[in-house]
Amino acid sequence: MRFSPRAIGLLAAVVTVTIWTGFIVIARASAQRTLTPFDIALLRIVGASLVLLPWGWWMVRRRTTAQGSAAPPSSLAGISPLPLRTTVLLGSFGGLLYAMLAYAGFFHAPATHAAVLMPGSLPLWTALLAAVLLRDHITPLRAAGLALIVAGDLLVGGRSLLAAFSGGDVWKGDVLFMLAASCWATYSVLARRHAVDAVQATIAITAFACLVYVPSYALLIALGAVTSHLAIAPWSEIVFHMAFQGGGSVVISGIGFTRMIQHYGPVRSTMITALVPGLSAIGAVIFLDEPMYWNLVAGLLLVTAGILLGVLRKSQAGMAAIPSTPASGRTAP
Predict the structure, then answer these.
(1) DSSP secondary structure string, 162-207?
(2) How far apart are CA 98 and CA 320, in angstroms?
């Protein structure tokens, strides 16, 4: 049975938004269970590697066979389809730093904060970095959208920063969320600057993260520098994170976003992903019993309005730029 392009596009949109929303809610719920941020980052990388590394090896092998030569020396151990320098550059921001900062943030701040500060601030960081690195022009309408995003972020994070004077530590999570968003925006802009293929970029950052993070994690555990709870965690929890955080958040949502772009185009796709902050906040209230204060609601509305205003600018100018997700080389969790 063959599905129509419209049905495939709709399915891709639903899957992508659902996984991006679930990433925020599930990561916060996981922070209240057994595993540490280092453990969850490891399971994300290993889960994605089980799918993407054989894919990358096949890509490199097919290319070298077609060229009639050995594996190019610039390839990362013959499993990254991108040159070594590009793999290291993209992998550092999109593969390592993003995951570690994001998961660490959930151990300090609630998912309602992450819903606003991570997907909500991506357009802000991306626009600023693109202006510096790509010489993109920020029009008055886009500047207005970015101003709304900044105002929304301040409404959410400002209260946490003020609470730090009374001993609260939620601000630490807010800062980590913003840093994670800036890392993914950096990856997005660099991927755009190097004009890399979406799937190849996803494979490359996963390959780099696997070869760097896994041995480093093992060494730090052996030296007692970090703590691991993998030994005491239920197998069901470990398998779930490998499947969802790795297979779902990295592989499936990336491919889904790419298919959504192919059907709806970048402008309409960005409007669809603007649903993520609101749905994540609602999910945190329903499933995690997190309170929804007035500043969170106001911040959420401002951030969503800022994103849509940026999309309106792109629609009027007829541009094809988009924020950022793992498998498109531009936006995601």
Answers:
(1) HHGGGT--HHHHHHHHHHHHHHHHHHHHHHHHTT--HHHHHHHHHH
(2) 25
Q: For the chain, how far is it from start to end, CA to CA, in angstroms?
A: 32
Please name the residues in contact with 132: beta carbons below 8 A apart, sequence gap of 6 or more.
none
219: enclosing H helix or E strand: helix 198-223
User: Which among 119, 193, 187 has a CA at the least distance from the CA of 327?
Assistant: 187
Place of tokens 């357009």: 123
Contact status, residue 250 vs residue 327, Cβ threshold 8 Å: yes
Tokens of 254: 């990336």
- State pLDDT tens for residues 236-255: 999 999 999 999 998 898 78
pLDDT digits 0-9 by tens, 124-145 = 787 888 888 878 777 787 788 8
- Amino acid identity of residue 91, one-letter, is G
Mean pLDDT score, 12-37: 89
Whole-model pTM: value is: 0.81
**Arithmetic mean of pLDDT over the chain:** 82
More confident residue, 168 or 225: 225
Q: What number is the average pLDDT over the span 187-214?
A: 88
Each as own residue / partner, the long-range contacts of residues 223-231 (CB below 8 Å, 24 or more positions apart, any chain) are 226/36, 226/38, 227/36, 227/38, 228/36, 228/38, 228/39, 229/34, 229/35, 229/36, 229/39, 230/35, 230/39, 230/42
* CA–centroid distance for 72 within its chain: 29
- Residue 328, pLDDT > 50, answer no
DSSP string, 102-120: HHHHTTTS-HHHHHHHSTT
Which pLDDT belongs to residue 73?
Answer: 52
Distance between CA atoms of residues 275 and 292, nearest Å: 17
Distance CA 224, CA 246 (A): 26
DSSP classification of residue 78: T
